[in-house]
Structures are given as structure tokens and as C-alpha cells.
Design a protein that fits this description.
Layout lengths: L9 E5 L4 H12 L3 E6 L2 H13 L4 E5 L5 H15 L4 E4 L14 H22 L8 E5 L12 H17 L9 E7 L32 H12 L10 E4 L12
Helix pairs in contact: 1-2, 1-6, 3-4, 4-5
The structure holds nicotinamide-adenine-dinucleotide.
The site of nicotinamide-adenine-dinucleotide has 31 residues, from helix 1.
Pfam family, one: adh_short_C2
InterPro entries: KR_dom, NAD(P)-bd_dom_sf, SDR_fam
Protein name: Short-chain dehydrogenase
Length: 255
Amino acid sequence: MDMGMFAGKVALVTGGASGIGVAAALRFAEEGAAVVIADLNEVGAETIAAEIRAKGGRACAVRCDVASEADNAAMVALAKSEYGRIDAAFLNAGAYAQTGFAEADAATFDTMVAINLKGAWMGLQAVLPALEPGGAAVVTASTSGVTGLAVAAAYSAAKHGVIGLVRSSSQAFAARGLRVNAICPGPVATAILGVTEQPPLQVPDALEVPGYAGTMQPQHIAEIALFLASPRSGAINGQEIIADAGFLASYPPMP
Ligand code: NAD
């Protein structure tokens, strides 16, 4: 695993115990990065780290609640102490509440904002000053961060905030060559949507998106995360990249 786009580099992935985060952690490792896998689910994170180590890669796991400032700081400190540097941060942890505006209470709103928006804010505050020159942070937003989602109003509001955060933080360390971008996935087959069986870790040649439902896999999003985290996307900063297989491009969708 010493050749690849991230050979000799260090990548940090939050929400790395499931779904998109797992796919990204495995791909970073395949591309030669040492990977720090952070998640509320420490056992799940360690399972993925062990899988990477079993293949000859470098990886460690850390329990991190992204809604905790102290946990974000500890995650960054661990990455530095284990591997000495951080080149890429994929701030991907998130939580979903399927509650429309009329039914949602303030506690649901607070939880959605604490994990999805404030978690990203604190993650960027912790990691950006620690990134190596030329490094990059990538935050997982959502298509519901660029258009409303009536069935998940608080989640959608928080993800809109993530895009504002990415835009407004993107200049802060630009003088050091650091970039911050967002990915906005459409529906992806992960636990957050109730899909627990993960398909083999291969990216299909073509997407099959029957109408609105979507059949994107975590690997589709992971590829974009790696691109945005690498110098290959050096001209992209402060942007939200919609990865929805055409989900938002046309309404109504194909039947
Ligand atoms: P997932 O449920 O498979 O993974 C989410 C991971 O985040 C889990 O491992 C969970 O333990 C972790 N997590 C939750 N709260 C946390 C916290 N407070 N601190 C640390 N870790 C925490 O779902 P996924 O689809 O892989 O989600 C990844 C990201 O993608 C999320 O930000 C989600 O909002 C976003 N997203 C997903 C979809 C989709 O359709 N799956 C669409 C758009 C955006």
C-alpha cells in the first residue's frame, strides 16, 4: 500500500464506522494513506481499522462524538501523535431525523444541528489549523442542503448550514493552500436510510437510478471525497459538489 494518490499522507475520516465513511476509509488506505477512523461507534471504527491493517495498511480508530469540542480536539491530537501529520480530513459523520416541520420539536432541531452543523464547524475548527500545507477538508452535506426536504426539515436546515459553513471557512486558510469543500449526496444505500447490507466494494461502471429512488452506493461518494481531498482538485475551493446521479437535475424524474 505504499503507492497511490495518498502515499505517505494521513487521512482522517469521521463517521468511519458505517456507510460512506467506511467506503472512504478503505479507499484512502488503498491509495496509500494512513487512516484515522473516528466514530461514535468505536467498535465499528476499530473493525474497519483492523481490516485495513490486515491488508498491510496503517489505520487506527478513535471514539469521537463530533458534537463534542473536546472529542474533535482529541481526534486531531491522536492523528498527529500516531502519524505526525494530517493531509486530508473527511468530516462525514451525520445523523438523520425523518420529521416534517409541523411535527419536529426543538429537541430534534437541536440534535440535527449539533451533529450535522455544529459538528462540522467544530471539526473544521480543530482540523484546519492542523492540516499540512496543500491539505484539504471535505464535509458531507446533502442534496437536502441545497433544496428543502419536507420529510426531514431539521436535517435539511442543518445541511443547508453545512454549505454556508464550507463556503465561509474556505478562505480562512487558503493562504496555506488549504481547501474546504462539501459533497452533497443524493440517496445512498446506507444505514442512515435503513440499508444495512453493504454491496461489494466496487464502483459500478454506470449508475442505475430508477426515478427518484436512487441506487447510489457509498463507494460513489467515497471516490468524490478522495478527489476533493487530493491535490487533483486544487482549483476547487468553497464549493458544494452535488453527487446525486441526476436526482436534482430534472423534475419530475423519469418514471
Ligand atoms: P451511516 O448511518 O451508514 O453512517 C453514519 C456514521 O456516522 C455512523 O457510523 C454513525 O455512528 C456516525 N455518527 C453518527 N453520529 C455521530 C456523532 N455524533 N459523532 C460521531 N459519529 C457519528 O450513514 P451514511 O449515509 O454513511 O452517512 C454519512 C454522511 O452522509 C452523513 O453526514 C449523512 O447525513 C450524509 N448523507 C447521507 C445520504 C444517504 O442517503 N445515505 C444522503 C445525503 C447525505
